[in-house]
Amino acid sequence: PYPTPIMCALIGAPREDWRLFADWTEEVFQALNFQPDVNFDESAIMRAWNELDAYVDDMVTTRRVNLTGDLLSELIRAESDGDRLTLDELRMLVAGFLMAGTDTTRNQLAASVQVLCEHPDQWRKLRDHPELAMQAVEESMRHSPAASIVPRAATEDVEFGGYLFPARTFVLANTFAANRDPAIYADADRFDIARTDHLPPILTFGGGAHYCLGANLARRELAEALLVLTRRLDAPRRVGPAPWKSLLGMTGPTTLPIEFTGASLESAHA
C-alpha cells in the first residue's frame, strides 16, 4: 500500500523489508475489521503481530547502540526528567504508527480519487492549479471521509439534543453527517476544491486531546498522490460499481474500476 513505504522510511526500516511490513499490516488489520461479512484467521493475525514485535525489538536493540536520524532513534533519545521510553512502549508506538498510518490513508486516497473522478471539472481544476492540492485533500475528506466515525467516551454526564449521555458512555460521532452539516457548510453536498468560505475544521481527524497525531502527514501524503495522479492521468472515469465498505470502522470503496488516457509526456513531467 502507498503509505507503508512512507511509514517504514520514517522509522528507519530498510527498503528491502518494506514488503514485510505491508504483509504484517494486512494480516493485523483483519482484527480491526468491523465488516460483518468478513471472517479472519486468528492464528495468522497473531503470527504477523509476533513477527512485527520481534522485528521492532531487533530495530530498537540496534538503534540503542547506533542512533541515526530516523523517528525510532528520536523516540529512543526522548527523555523527560530522566525517564525514557521502555522497550514495550517503543514497540507499541511503532506498531501504532503503522496501524494508524496505513489503512486510513489508503482508504482516503481511494475515496478522494473516486469523488474527483465523479467531478471531472474538479479533476481538471486540480491538474491546472496544483496549488489547490491541500484544499482538494481537505474538501475530499469533508465530502467523502474514510474515517466515518470518531469514537469517544463521555468524561462526565452530558445532555445533548434532549438525551442524557452518562459519564463513561461510548459515543460514535458520525463524520459524514458532521462534515455535511448545512448549518455549518454552505451548499454542504457540493464538492468544490476551491471553496472560499471560512470553514471550521473538519471532524475527520477528531478533535481535542485525541486529535490525530498523523493528520498533517496524511494530508501531505494525499496531496502528493493527488498531484501525481492528476498530472499523469487525463479524464479518468469510473467504469463499474464502486461499492463502499460498511460505515463501521474504516470505510471507502472496495473496488474502483476507472479508465483514463495518459497525459502528455511533457505535462506528466512538469
From TrEMBL:
Molecular function, one GO term = heme binding
Q: Which UniProt keywords apply?
A: Heme, Iron, Metal-binding, Monooxygenase, Oxidoreductase
Q: Which domain of life is it from?
A: Bacteria
Q: Kinase: present as a keyword of the record?
A: no
Q: Can the keyword Iron be found in this entry's annotation?
A: yes
Q: Can you tell me which residues the record assigns to a coiled coil?
A: none
The entry sums up its family as follows: Belongs to the cytochrome P450 family.
Q: What is this protein called?
A: Cytochrome P450
Organism for this UniProt entry: Mycolicibacterium diernhoferi
